[in-house]
């Protein structure tokens, strides 16, 4: 994060944890705490606000950061960077009619990819794509409107996917990159996306640092 003490230029900082409830409040608290640690300022100097469309942003000392947060039942995650708009999403892996959902909501190439996997793997694979679509929508500041579900995501080159989160360009949309990763022994899926911020729309190389934090640090 260029220009901020306690951070590395261009790094996307991702923090996540599990919880037994109150996910929304704890996600807000984790976002503020992480921003304060990166900037090396008291958390009282940073506050959370929202644009009319719902996208979060930081005020005070955190005004130079691009942020996103997400929560699902029992888990939450935040992302921060200073270079380009960022989006994050998290889902709990659970039983789904994944093949039917994929054919209903996803691009045909994505649905075919999900269907080609063994049946026990399909729910996680569907959510692996879904979290990326949600993250891209957040990075763009428009959610899943304007064809967000039909926007193609980069497919995993192997399954299970890599354990390192390395965003790749979206097919036909080089100004956007995304990826997802399985966390917590495969119990959760975390998706991340970045939107290009340079004059030519390129996103560039942004290393992603993902770390699980202790819930006691959030409450």
Can you give a write-up of this model?
The protein has 219 residues and is an alpha+beta fold. Helices cover 26% and strands 30% of the residues. It is built from four helices and ten strands. It has helices at residues 23-39, 98-105, 108-116, 119-140, and strands spanning 12-18, 46-50, 56-60, 66-72, 75-81, 86-92, 168-170, 173-183, 188-195, 208-212. The protein has a four-stranded mixed β-sheet, with helices on one face. A four-stranded antiparallel β-sheet has the order 6-9-8-7. The longest helix is centred in the middle third of the chain and has 22 residues, at 119-140. The protein starts with 11 loop residues before the first strand and ends in a 7-residue tail after the last strand. The model is unreliable at 1-7 and 197-202 (pLDDT under 50).
């Amino acid at each position: 994060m260029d220009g901020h003490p306690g951070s590395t230029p261009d790094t996307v900082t991702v923090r996540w944890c599990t919880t037994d409830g109150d996910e929304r409040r704890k996600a807000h608290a984790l976002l503020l705490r992480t921003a304060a640690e990166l900037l090396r300022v008291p958390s009282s100097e940073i506050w959370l606000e929202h644009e009319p469309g719902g996208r979060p942003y930081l005020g005070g000392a955190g005004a130079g950061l691009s942020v996103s947060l997400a929560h699902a039942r029992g888990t939450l995650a935040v992302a921060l960077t200073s270079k380009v708009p960022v989006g994050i999403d998290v889902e709990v892996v659970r039983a789904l009619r994944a093949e039917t959902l994929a054919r209903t909501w996803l691009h045909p190439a994505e649905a075919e990819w999900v269907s080609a996997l063994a049946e026990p793997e399909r729910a996680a694979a569907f959510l692996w794509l879904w979290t990326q679509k949600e993250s891209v929508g957040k990075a763009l500041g428009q959610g899943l409107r304007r064809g967000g579900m039909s926007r193609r995501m980069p497919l995993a080159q192997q399954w299970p996917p890599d354990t390192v989160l390395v965003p790749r360009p979206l097919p036909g949309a080089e100004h956007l990159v995304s990826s997802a990763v399985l966390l917590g022994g495969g119990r959760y899926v975390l998706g991340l996306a970045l939107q290009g911020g340079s004059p030519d729309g390129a996103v560039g190389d942004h290393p992603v640092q993902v770390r699980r934090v202790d819930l006691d640090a959030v409450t």
